[in-house]
Amino acid sequence: MRLSIYLRSLAIFLCLALAWPLATPVYAVQPDEMLEDPVLENRARELSRGLRCVVCQNESIDESNADLARELRLVVRERLVAGDSNEEVLDYLVQRYGEFVLLRPRTDGWNMVLWLSGPALFLIALGIGITYIRSRSNAVAPTEAGLSEDETARLKEILKDS
Amino acid sequence: MVTELGHFALILAFLVAIVQSVVPLVGAHKRWPGWMAVAEPAATVQFLLTAFAFAALTYAFVTSDFSLRLVWLNSHSAKPMIYKISGVWGNHEGSMLLWVLILTLFGAMAAWFGKGLPPTLRARVLAVQSAVAVAFFAFILFTSNPFLRLAVPPFDGQDLNPLLQDPGLAFHPPFLYLGYVGLSICFSFAVAALIEGRVDAAWGRWVRPWTLAAWVFLTIGIALGSWWAYYELGWGGFWFWDPVENASFMPWLLAAALLHSAIVVEKREALKSWTILLAILAFGFSLIGTFIVRSGLLTSVHAFANDPERGVFILMIMVFFTGGALTLFAARAGTMEAKGVFGVASRESALVANNVLLAVSCFVVFVGTLWPVVAEMFFDTKLSVGAPFFNMAFTPFMVVLGLLLPLGSMLSWKRAKTGRALKQLLPGFILSVLVLGLFWTMQTGNSLLGPVGMFLGAWIVSGALLDLTNRLGQSRDLTRLFRLPRADWGKATAHIGLGVTMVGIAGLMAWQEEDIRVAQIGEPFQVGDFELELTAVNQVRGPNYFSTMGDVIVRQDGEQIAFLNPEKRNYPVAQMPTTEAAIDYRFLRDIYVVIGDPQDNGGWVMRTYIKPLANWIWAGSILMALGGILSLTDRRFRVAAGAKRQAPAQGVPAE
Fold first, then answer.
1. By CA distance, what is B571's nearest residue in A?
2. Is the dihedral of CA B510, B511, B515, B521 positive or negative?
3. CA-CA distance, B444 to B306, in Å (whole number)?
4. What percentage of chain B carries pLDDT values higher than 90?
5. Deepest of A38, B124, B509, B650, by most Cβ within 10 A of its Cβ?
6. In this complex, is the C-beta atom of A127 within 8 Å of any C-beta atom belonging to chain B?
7. What is the pLDDT of residues B446-478, one digit of tens each?
């Protein structure tokens, strides 16, 4: 019993020793990447938040630990230091990695469908809603016995006759 | 042996489900009581058999039976017991088994508590519920069997993904499934009502508790997931608009809409066909969610087995049930006439607005989630739709919802006087404007997000409180508050919860502070109002991991207010590192500390975040869930869910 515990710890330790060099993670933005100029650094952070780490699963390069994300973060900063505007940096990255890199899809071409579908459906739904409400407010409430208007009228007539 | 019995029980349950999905349906059609009566015991038996199968699988995990393929892939003998158990559903096959277990549980509960339903409706509800179960039993048995054995059992397992070895995440899936699958009952009720061709106030009253329960579970499940992401992923994000998150959020939005529209059906016999449609769509979106998670159609941080064959199977289930129900709806919806008449300014109209906003915001999430697939299929462009899109496209609808909510919830039924409601809300409005002004002047920078969020929160919370006090009428007798129906309390609590969550989200997103640096041991540094000092970094051993643990002292005005231990863990078996942030939770802000790598020239990378109002997000979620539970315990539902019409009160007792 004791022995098996020792063996197991040994096994875990060996695994760890072997795995250690492979598994040291690199965490998101590193201090050595950051720019001296706080204005530029802020712009870099803002841009990074809108850029996808293309090898990751839906993470921005600002959040990602992947090597490629680090590379991209450095590229963004390089371009900013070189004097690019935010738009120019994005264009540069789109040229290299395609639109896939943008977390906020562009507002042109077919993407307009994406951007406008929400507001469009809202207007349609609003229209339907208002029509429905108006039809309900103009409708005639069924009477207690569940008779229609004609039936009520006939009932009255019958009652009058007798 | 137990495993084989479990496998056998699952196959038996499958067969029972087939019988239950056919016989009662025929019976209801032909009005044969004997055939209809099959449904009830069948539902119970089906549940017991599935529960046995699930227990057998759990037993295999608990005893670390590595001759079972699934256990070998997802467990390890050194894993703590709680994660051996949560490992049962921490994988595709096991989680599907949990899914059908809950499906059959809800079916059985509908049988147990539905004694008062008209016999044909009950038979049909149970048959439809069972038909859904048939599809999922087949899915499990034919594509994702959890009971497969290995010919040569290995010595030890491959361990569960360390990210999943966490108390927050251990219970995240069961709650989510209770929510997803809870909506199946609403779906079954909707389809049964379509077959019956009859929807009335009683139907609304039967469906509402199920919707409410499903919504409560979804709320808790989503909140748990987001809380987990907050403390586990290492930078304190709480919502990523990840496809899988969206998959759970869409049913939540629709369930919230259904919850409100069913009130209109129950009280006013209007919005009937829309409510039926919502019930179908809400479960439809649960299926879409399952499909998105299991098919690997969309890349996501949620790593689940991505198998095209399974994807196709679920797609077929989804198309069959949603498509079938919608076809039935198209054929029958016309027969459901609205009865209630109401003015333009009325609670009914407000609830229509609620439904428009919730349904459209759900649609926005839906389009955003699927757009990358659409773009790739039709326009041949690979693109991403991420958080920036959703924040821009989704938020406006929530702002409008928040603005309308206090007013709408105060309007009276049928015909309301908007002026009077506005007058009653005036104190709340003044308070909220003051809050807006206060935060506008206090903050640095010109961000609208923070002050607007605070305004909305104050407006919703004060509106809900005023709504309660208004119920007292002229008498200022506060004890009467406690005699209000629980549903009123539930409504107020849930709405307050929404306000609190909005405050938390806005505060966190607008005023978060961040600091990234190389911290030297023993050299204090300043972040916002706080002074932090890394005093030591130690190597620590856990049950199945090794940890690099930092000792961090946090001081404010020279006094120590917290001692934090941020960790970097390594799980040798799964070969995966994780970060364990250390968080000092406080009412108004969290201090969130993460330790990174050692640097060559000394010191450690440290990230520190000041996260204002972070806890409010989850406190609000808890309040929302609590509100739902309060409503569920309302007398109206407890009285056998409207089973028998109560005898008309004879002679009102003098009060």
1. A16
2. negative
3. 47
4. 52
5. B124
6. no
7. 678 899 999 999 999 999 999 888 877 766 677
| Confidence at residue B651, expressed as pLDDT on a 0 to 100 scale | 38
**Using an 8 Å Cβ cutoff, are B518 and B635 in contact?**
no
Tokens 């251990």 appear where?
B170
B570 at A interface, C-beta within 8 A: yes
Find the mean pLDDT for residues B89-110: 92
Interface with B, mutate which of A136, A143, A144 (most B CBs under 10 A):
A136
Chain A CB within 8 Å of residue B367 CB:
yes
Cα of A141 to nearest chain B Cα, Å: 6
- Measured between beta carbons, which residues in chain A are less than 8 angstroms from residue B596? 27, 30
Q: Do A142 and B339 touch (CB under 8 A)?
A: yes
Distance from CA of A99 to the nearest CA of B (A): 5
- DSSP state, A99? G
Q: Does B10 touch chain A (CB under 8 A)?
A: no
φ and ψ of B321, to 5 deg: -75, -50
Give the best residue of B267, B356, B576, B608 to mutate against chain A (max A CB count within 10 A). Answer: B356
Which uninterrupted H or E stretch holds B3?
helix B2-30
Dihedral, CA of residue B239, residue B226, residue B132 and residue B307, to nearest 10: 70
Mutate to test the interface with B, among A122, A128, A134 (most CBs of B within 10 A): A122
* Contact by Cβ (8 Å): A36, A30: no
Do A99 and B340 make contact, defined as CB atoms within 8 angstroms? no
The pairing of beta strand B546-556 with beta strand B559-564: antiparallel
The per-residue DSSP string of B4-39 comes to: HHHHHHHHHHHHHHHHHHHHHHHHHHHT-HHHHTTH
Long-range contacts of A29-32 (CB under 8 A, 24+ apart): A29/A62, A29/A73, A29/B516, A30/A70, A30/B516, A30/B596, A30/B605, A31/B516, A31/B517, A31/B518, A31/B605
Task: Give the CATH number of domain A25-101.
Answer: 1.10.8.640
User: Which positions in chain B touch A102 (Cβ < 8 Å)?
Assistant: 383-384
Take residue B256 and report the two structure tokens written for it: 């919230």
Residue ranges per structural domain of chain A: 25-101, 111-161
Nearest to B431 by CA among B466, B462, B400: B462
> Per residue in A55-88, pLDDT tens?
777 788 888 877 888 888 999 999 999 888 999 9
